Amino acid sequence: MTTIARSVCPFDCPDSCGLLVEVEGGRAVKVRGDPAHPYSQGTLCPKMNGYDRTVHSPDRLLHPLVRTGRKGAGEFRRASWEEALRLVAGRWKAILAESGGEALLPYSYAGSMGLVQRNAGMALFHRLGATRLERTICTPAQGAGWSAVMGRTPGPSPDVVLDSDLVVLWGCNAVATSLHFARRAQEARRRGARVILVDTYANHSAAIADDVVLVRPGADAALALGIVHVLAREGLADERFLAAEAVGWPELRARALAEYAPEAVSRVTGLAPAAVEALARTLAAARAPFLRIGGGPSRYGNGAMTIRSVVALAAVLGVHGRKGGGCLVSTSTSAAFDLAPFTGEDLLPRPTRQVSMNQLGRALAELSDPPIRAMYVWGSNPAAVAPDQNAVLRGLAREDLFLVVHERFMTDTARHADVVLPATTSLEHADLYRSYGHYAVQRARPAIPPLGEARSNWDVSRALAAAMGLEEPLFRMSTDEVIELLLARAAPEWVSAAARARLDSGEAVTLAPPPGPRWRTPSGRIELLNRAEPEPLPRYLPAHADGDPLPLRLVTAPALYTLNSSFQERPELREKAGGMALQLGPAEAARRGLADGQRVVAWNAVGEATFVLRVREGVPPGVAVAEGVSWLAHAPGERNVNALTSQRLTDQGRGSTFYDNRIDVRAG
Ligand code: SF4
Q1: What's the CA angle centered on 378, arms 373 and 384, to 5 degrees?
Q2: d(C-alpha 21, C-alpha 31), whole Å
Q3: Contact 379/109 with Cβ under 8 angstroms?
Q4: Is 48 in the pocket of ligand 1 (CB under 6 A)?
Q5: 9, 235, 115, 163: which is closest to 486 by C-alpha?
Q6: What is the spatial distance between Cα 383 and Cα 407, in angstroms, rounded to a whole number?
Q7: Three-state DSSP class for residue 619
Q8: Ligand 1 atom closest to Cα of 180?
Q9: What would the pLDDT profile of 186-203 be if each residue is shown by its tens digit?
Q10: Most buried of 250, 309, 464, 532, CB within 10 angstroms?
């Protein structure tokens, strides 16, 4: 008999698609899109079509494992849960007694986006007084850039774009990273809109764009301010909107006119002055431009200022005042839920030290008093995804580091573990999902029982708390009880009683942002000038790599068939992705005597990695592109693109700077 269960895609993607899972005899036999989901409306991306093959992969970890070989060799023996928990708790107790709680480091991110499983270990490690992790690997600079101009103003619904006549995908490869926004952009185009892609190379989204504007990596702020210059110079800014809704237009106008003439901007962006002017005029002529800003432009040393400049441009165009117009960075609905009772900030014995997850290699090598002696990883694969891979691997290979990894597969990080604990997939546990690309939330219940002895992140966290002798009531709560707690404490203006009932039934429910002032900023207006910021006005800041001597700017872009290092367990997806490739334009390849398909080594001061070369027309001179994050086990040289990325941080938010590195390339 086939039953159908509702679920949600758990991966780190703004779409949080609704799933229908066909179950036969306790197995998920097919996963498809849920037509009733208000945003994804029944379609899934190529990664999730076939999710049942991930869930029932022969490579799933099904039992606890204890290391028998040298660190990183991947040699383990099977253990019982009882033995594994006893071993972990014993080592942690000894380390706590000798070195104190800060010798423990939890490391996690968005392997599962559900509020419970993603945050599962927080309370435990707070209670133990562990070093706290700054979970900043993705786009904190994007948030900082938005809030510098817009404060806490929620982003518009992505559905607004359907009424736009000019859609700008700014650093947003929507086809690969927000498929259902791409579909809406295509629908707007069918209705007559123009679509412009502003990016560093002609990626998959070029196929849905009428125009592709290629800007030099890290120079987006200069382009945005150059457009502001043209708008100001030619009387094309939305003066009525700015006078009524913004503060600081005279100051921004003066700066743009003085410093960002198209000729000056051309030198930074690589765009001809006429191209800057043409883009400005196209934007100004549109009835309702909609700017969708991706995460990529924020992953440079100047990331926050870059996003701030593009958000300011949107205000100068007056996009917010028009039907179909808007500027969307994120819609995070997490403000609807109060996570504090679950993450246990109050359990911290004192404010413990913090470590950036972007500087893991440095933390494992350099921290003292105490050094990191134990690390617990869930929902992340730092050996593959953290920057400065060689430093990370050196740290993980430390014989004196007690590493526990809770995972679904034997990832590069799990191979370095002392103890590996088997994790459930999203179909095997409950969770509560929100999105950062739309306003729907959904509660998912397990569609199938756990495979083997796999346990959910929260169940393992509870078991470890018990093994450590912790007695707080929180650690006795089931996942469902935690979800009930989160829903009971949800802001009633976001989650009404009616919405609550629909969530309990498993439906995806679109929340309306709570009523409030139009602009949730200290001044009550859009803040083009913000004196609370270190820099009161937007401006172009050089990127970190601008001063590096190597000739190619490396763009570590998202892939179509994998998501960070997720989905690498699926051979058919790896095959479609075409292996670990580095893309160069024809001129750069020819200059080095390199041909499509050959092995090449990319190198810089951080490290080197071996790729297959792909020569692509859409990659401009001076740029190299590596899409996706390969597992090291599949990488031709046992290093992936993060052997080339640095531990430098963004201007604000202490975010990652994955896109802000230079390399050169030679035959491999
Ligand atoms: S990865 Fe994104 S687009 Fe693909 S199914 Fe999941 S949420 Fe949807």
Answers
A1: 85
A2: 5
A3: yes
A4: yes
A5: 115
A6: 13
A7: coil
A8: 3
A9: 999 999 999 999 999 999
A10: 309
Dig out the tokens for 508 from the structure: 């995806």
Task: Tell me, in angstroms, the distance from the centre of ligand 1 to residue 52's CA.
Answer: 14
Q: In a mutational test of the pocket of ligand 1, which residue from 9, 20, 331 has the highest number of ligand atoms less than 8 Å from its CB?
A: 9
pLDDT digits (tens, 9 = 90+) for 220-239: 999 999 999 999 999 999 99
- Is residue 598 a contact partner of residue 668, using CB atoms and an 8 Å limit? yes
- Whether the CB-CB separation of 261 and 299 falls below 8 Å is answered with no
Domains in the chain (CATH in brackets) are: 65-138+339-432+452-477 (3.40.50.740), 140-332 (3.40.228.10), 544-667 (2.40.40.20)
Whose C-alpha lies nearest to ligand 1, atom 3?
A: 45
Predicted TM-score of the model (pTM): 0.96
- Which of these, 398, 401, 449, lies nearest to 425 by C-alpha position? 449
**Please, what is the Cα angle at 413 between 111 and 81, to 5 degrees?**
80
List the 508-510 sheet strands across, edge first.
Answer: 431-433, 440-444, 508-510
- Give the Cβ contact number of residue 92 at 10 Å: 23
- 114 Cα to the center of ligand 1, angstroms: 14
Q: How far apart are CA 435 and CA 113, in angstroms?
A: 8
The pLDDT tens digits of the residues spanning 425-479 come to 999 999 999 999 999 999 999 999 999 999 999 999 999 999 999 999 999 999 9
**CA 108 to CA 121: how far, in whole Å?**
9
Would the CB of 440 count as within 6 Å of ligand 1?
A: no
